[in-house]
UniProtKB/TrEMBL annotation:
InterPro entries associated with the record: Ferritin-like_SF, Pigment-catalase-like, TAT_signal
Source organism: Sphingobium cupriresistens LL01
Protein name: Dessication-associated protein
Pfam family, one: Ferritin_2
Length: 315
């Protein structure tokens, strides 16, 4: 059998696998309770009347960087990011619930520290470029409460049962799964925002951050795959999280776990053309708010994100 035929069969198996996800987890509408669905969608309608500015887009990205930076800062250093990185306009809040991970795998510990430093640098970089137009860090939930964001996300994916909690700080493996929830979304968010940016300077900056987020996602996915060889439940967990994210953002084949596609690993999630996926800002907030409805708060951002781009999509 030629290499060309093998490549074609691999792509066909990948396409079939994505198709099989179509009907999975469509009953996740109950997660809308965490999104405060009673909020009016008027701000989303206003947004549709005019394209967001480059500053709006960078502030949207900054909210996501606040989330990632605080998660990794807690995991590595035991504290949220420094308050010198949190001021600005909007509803200021704190990141709560995290704690230091007692890493047992020195490789994962080193990866975690590197990513933490990168994410804090992203916050600093975006804040400096936004200047006086920067938004404040909103309230962020990175805790382990049974009704908190991580537990709700894990429950939606079927990783835990009702009333249980998911603690991403309890082990190297749980930390990696917590990171997996964020990193793929960050890559698709920056790719989806790229066509909206008009300034070449800002576009270059966004491309630079996108590349780093993709490196991070690759590290996390590779680490989970390596550990999953001995503990297959880890690979299964990434598939479940992937399906849950698809059910929230209204897509049927956008997301992928790390299970093998044919005879190859699936470290890099991509389409049949070998391209990374994109998410709209609304789809990104579907996952961040843990809802498939249009709302302005919930999940990892209990009071919503700051800035003009703040509504999730109705799926």
């Amino acid at each position: 059998m030629t290499d060309d035929i093998l490549a074609i069969e691999t792509l066909e198996r990948r396409a079939k696998r994505r198709e099989e996800r179509r009907d999975f987890f469509r009953t996740l509408g109950a997660m809308a309770a965490f999104g405060s669905a009673g909020f009016a969608a008027s701000s989303q309608s206003a947004m549709a009347q005019s394209a967001p500015s480059d500053g709006d887009i960078l502030n949207f990205a900054l909210n996501l960087e606040y989330l990632e930076a605080n998660f990794y800062s807690y995991a590595v250093f035991g504290t949220p990011i420094d308050t010198k990185y949190t001021s600005g306009s909007g509803n200021a809040g704190t990141a709560t619930g995290g704690r230091k991970v007692n890493f047992t795998d020195p490789v994962v510990a080193q990866y975690a520290k590197e990513i933490a430093q990168d994410e804090i640098a992203h916050v600093d970089f975006l804040r400096k470029n936004l200047g006086g137009a920067v938004v404040a860090q909103p309230a962020i939930d990175v805790g382990t409460d049974p009704n908190g964001a991580f537990s709700s996300a894990a429950r939606a994916a079927g990783l835990i049962g009702g009333g249980a909690s998911f603690d991403p700080y309890s082990s190297d493996e749980n930390f990696l799964l917590g990171a997996f929830i964020f990193e793929d979304v960050g890559v698709t968010a920056y790719k989806g925002a790229a066509p909206l940016i008009t300034s070449k300077a800002y576009l270059e900056a966004a491309a630079g951050i996108l590349a780093v987020e993709a490196y991070h996602a690759g590290l996390v996915r590779t680490s989970l795959y390596r550990k999953g060889i001995a503990t297959p439940s880890l690979i299964d967990a990434t598939e479940a999280i992937s399906k849950a994210r698809d059910s929230l953002d209204g897509s049927s084949d956008l997301d992928q776990g790390i299970a093998n596609v044919g005879d190859a690993s699936n470290i890099v999630p991509l389409d049949a053309n070998g391209l990374a996926y994109s998410r709209t800002t609304g789809q990104v907030l579907n996952i961040a708010y843990l809802t498939n409805m249009a709302t302005a708060r919930g999940g990892f951002f209990p009071n919503g994100v700051n800035g003009t781009i703040n509504m999730s999509a109705a799926n």
